[in-house]
């Protein structure tokens, strides 16, 4: 079901102690300041902190726990890896998959991501599946062809029931960590395009029900304008999710 979501991707940042202090501030501020609005908050700390941070989130409320990655296999001799089932067992409800940093630095391709998606869904996790073009692709005017292919090869192999569980995040690579955010018009244009592709691959109802988040230098100043766009259902926030005041302001932007 389509929701408003603000998700914080901490990436490889904080210590446990700093992360605990951060989440405690965020929970307090959000509980004091965010009233009425239905926005869901997903916190995605590094693997070792999931369980502890998860316990700091008030149960049954707007806060949910997410992971930043998972392995494609259920279990076995894969030293250093973390399965979707493990994440589920420590309280994660979401998992980010297909982030451009994973695609770029860890060579994750559509085939591997398909397997990861299946593993996450089998474990009962909701994937936050990221797509987004590079600056080169945008400047070559190939953004829509690129995104169409990324969606078709990476995501649209899922059944209707599986796709129902997926949140899509549009993260233009040129906007991630660069301070160069997409304009609200650019974000809206791509989000509407993604929704149209979902309608073609599944149906109009699936398209209407899908939550599509924007990520890439979203901050307390630009969130309201981005979230006011009809097809932007929230944000996947990197840098600004590490500052309690900024992250809370973003959550308040709905
Ligand atoms: O990659 C992102 C979230 O997954 C966005 O990062 P920034 O908000 O730091 O640009």
TrEMBL record:
Domain of life: Bacteria
Broad enzyme group: isomerase
Keyword Membrane: no
Subcellular location(s) per record: Cytoplasm
Catalytic activity from the UniProt record: D-glyceraldehyde 3-phosphate = dihydroxyacetone phosphate
Residues bound to substrate: 9-11, 177, 217, 238-239
Keyword Cytoplasm: yes
Gene3D superfamilies reported in the protein's UniProt record: Aldolase class I
Active site residues of this protein: 99 (electrophile), 171 (proton acceptor)
Listed PROSITE patterns: TIM_1, TIM_2
Pathway membership: Carbohydrate degradation; glycolysis; D-glyceraldehyde 3-phosphate from glycerone phosphate: step 1/1; Carbohydrate biosynthesis; gluconeogenesis
InterPro entries noted in UniProt: Aldolase_TIM, TIM_sf, TrioseP_Isoase_bac/euk, Triosephosphate_isomerase, Triosephosphate_isomerase_AS
The protein's assembly and partners: Homodimer.
Protein name according to UniProt: Triosephosphate isomerase
Gene: tpiA
């Amino acid at each position: 079901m389509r929701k408003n979501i603000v998700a914080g991707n901490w990436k490889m940042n904080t210590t446990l102690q700093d992360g605990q202090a951060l989440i405690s501030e965020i929970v307090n501020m959000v509980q004091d300041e965010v009233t009425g609005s239905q926005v869901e908050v997903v916190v995605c700390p590094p693997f070792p902190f999931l369980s502890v941070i998860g316990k700091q989130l008030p149960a049954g409320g707007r806060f949910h726990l997410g992971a930043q990655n998972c392995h494609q296999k259920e279990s076995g001799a894969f030293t250093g890896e973390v399965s979707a089932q493990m994440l589920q067992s420590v309280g994660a409800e979401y998992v980010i998959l297909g982030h451009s940093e994973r695609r770029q630095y860890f060579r994750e391709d559509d085939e591997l991501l398909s397997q990861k998606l299946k593993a996450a869904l089998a474990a009962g996790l909701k994937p936050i599946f990221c797509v987004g073009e590079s600056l080169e692709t945008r400047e070559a005017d190939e953004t829509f062809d690129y995104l169409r292919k990324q969606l078709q090869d990476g995501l649209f192999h899922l059944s209707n029931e599986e796709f129902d569980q997926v949140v899509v995040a549009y993260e233009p690579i040129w906007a991630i960590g660069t301070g160069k955010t997409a304009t609200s018009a650019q974000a809206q244009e791509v989000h509407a395009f993604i929704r149209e592709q979902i309608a073609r691959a599944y149906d109009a109802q699936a398209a209407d029900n899908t939550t599509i988040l924007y990520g890439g230098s979203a901050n307390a100043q630009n969130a309201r304008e981005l979230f006011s766009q009809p097809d932007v259902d929230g944000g996947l926030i990197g840098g600004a999710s590490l500052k309690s005041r900024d992250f809370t302001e973003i959550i308040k932007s709905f």
